[in-house]
Write a structure and sequence with these properties.
By secondary structure, the protein is an alpha/beta fold. Helices cover about 40% and strands about 10% of the residues. The chain folds into 2 domains: about 80 residues, DNA polymerase beta, N-terminal domain-like (DNA polymerase, domain 1); about 240 residues, TIM Barrel (Alpha-Beta Barrel), CATH 3.20.20. It contains 14 helices and 7 strands.
C-alpha cells in the first residue's frame, strides 16, 4: 500500500523513515534511529482501516513499537501536516563536511553497501531507493560472505537468492542501476570466501579482512596480496581495519607493508577503498597519500549499513580532494559501462 494516501502528501511511514534517515545522517544514537524505523515498520504493516481507527481514537501509543514521540509524528502526519519534529530536522540539515564538493559531484555511485540480508539495518530496496533519490546513477549491494557468521554472511544459496531479488529490483528502478556485489572475506591463506564461479556472476567484488587483524606484518601482507592477485577482486576494502571512534570502541590499524600491498593493487588493477565511515577513515591520511603517490586506483565508498549513512560519501570525498586525488582515478566516478568493463577485465 502506498504511503501517499488519505493521510495527505506525506504519510506517517514516509515521515518516520525520513526522520530515521536524518538521524542516521547526523550520527545520532542507534536506539533513537531504531525507534523511528521500528514505528515505521509497525504502521506500514497496518491496513488503511486500522490507521484510520487509531487516528480517530488517538490511540497510536497503544500500538506495539510506537512510543510517545513517534505517536506524535504519526498523528500529525495522518492529519495531513508535516510533523513538527521532521520539520525541525529538515531545517537543521547542514552539509556534513566543508570541502570535497568537486569530488562529490564527480562520484556517480557507491560500491560498498549492506542490507538486512547480512548485518545492515534496512531492506535492500530501501537502501537502493535512497541511493537513487540521493542522485546516484548506480549502487552496489555488497553484503557479507558466509564465513562472517556474526554478520549473517550469505551462503552461496542465499547469495543466489539475492541475485534474483536484485535483478527484479533493478528492473523496477531503471534507469538507476542496482549492481550485484559482495564484501567477500579474505581468508587467512589469501583466498576469497566464496566460490570462483559464483564470484564471476557478480558485478563487483570488494575483498576485506575481518579476522586476526593483529597478525604480524609479514603474515598480513601475504594475506592481502593473495587476495589482491585474485582476478575476481575489484576493490580492497578498509585496508587497515582500524576504528577510531564510535559505539564499537576503538581498534588500532593492522600492520602490513603498505608499499608491497599498494604496488600489488596497482599491478593487478585493484582499487583501494577510501572508506567514508567516520569511525574508520580508512586508510589513514599518510597511507592514502602513499597510495596516491604510487599511482593506485581508488573507490570512495560509504560501507553504509543504513540509508542515512549513504550520505557519508561526503567524508571520503573531502579527504580525497584535500590530498589532491584526480577524480578520474576514482572508479566510481566512471560511467557504469566503463566501471563494469573494468570490473570484468580480470575474468578468467
Amino acid at each position: 500500500m502506498s504511503d501517499q494516501d488519505e493521510a495527505g502528501p506525506l504519510g506517517p511511514v514516509a515521515a518516520l523513515r525520513e526522520i530515521g534517515f536524518l538521524l542516521e545522517r547526523s550520527r545520532s544514537d542507534t536506539f533513537r534511529v531504531k525507534a523511528y524505523r521500528g514505528a515505521a515498520d509497525a504502521i506500514e504493516a497496518m491496513t488503511q482501516e486500522q490507521r484510520t481507527h487509531h487516528q480517530a481514537a488517538r490511540s497510536w501509543n497503544t500500538v506495539s513499537g510506537v512510543g510517545p514521540k513517534t505517536a506524535t509524528v504519526i498523528g500529525q502526519a495522518m492529519a495531513g501536516e508535516v510533523p513538527a519534529y521532521l520539520q525541525q530536522l529538515r531545517d537543521g540539515r547542514e552539509p556534513l563536511t566543508e570541502g570535497g564538493s568537486r569530488m562529490r559531484a564527480a562520484v556517480r555511485g557507491d560500491l560498498h553497501v549492506h542490507s538486512t540480508w547480512s548485518d545492515g539495518g534496512s531492506p535492500l530496496a530501501e537502501m537502493m531507493t535512497t541511493a537513487r533519490d540521493l542522485g546516484h546513477e548506480y549502487c552496489a549491494i555488497t553484503d557479507h560472505s558466509p564465513r562472517l557468521k556474526v554478520a549473517r554472511g550469505l551462503s552461496a544459496e542465499r547469495l543466489r537468492e539475492q541475485i534474483e531479488v536484485t535483478r527484479e529490483l533493478g528492473a523496477q528502478l531503471a534507469p538507476f542501476r542496482v549492481l550485484q556485489g559482495i564484501e567477500v572475506d579474505i581468508l587467512e591463506d589469501g583466498g576469497l570466501d566464496q566460490t570462483d564461479a559464483l564470484l564471476a556472476e557478480l558485478d563487483v567484488v570488494v575483498a576485506s579482512v575481518h579476522s586476526k587483524l593483529r597478525s604480524d606484518s609479514e603474515t598480513m601482507t601475504h594475506r592481502m596480496v593473495g587476495a589482491i592477485a585474485n582476478p575476481r577482486t575489484n576493490v580492497l576494502g578498509h585496508c587497515t581495519g582500524r576504528l577510531i571512534e564510535g559505539e564499537r570502541g576503538t581498534r588500532p590499524p593492522s600492520v602490513f607493508d603498505p608499499e608491497v600491498v599498494f604496488e600489488a593493487c596497482r599491478t593487478f588493477d585493484v582499487a583501494l577503498e577510501i572508506n567514508s565511515r567516520p569511525e574508520r577513515r580508512d586508510p589513514p591520511d599518510e597511507l592514502l597519500q602513499l597510495a596516491i603517490d604510487m599511482g593506485c586506483l581508488f573507490s570512495i565508498d560509504t560501507d553504509a549499513h543504513a540509508p542515512g549513512q549513504l550520505e557519508f560519501l561526503a567524508y571520503g570525498c573531502a579527504r580525497a580532494e584535500d590530498l589532491g586525488l584526480d577524480p578520474d582515478r576514482v572508479v566510481n566516478t566512471w560511467p557504469v559501462e566503463r566501471l563494469l568493463e573494468w570490473c570484468g577485465s580480470g575474468a578468467l
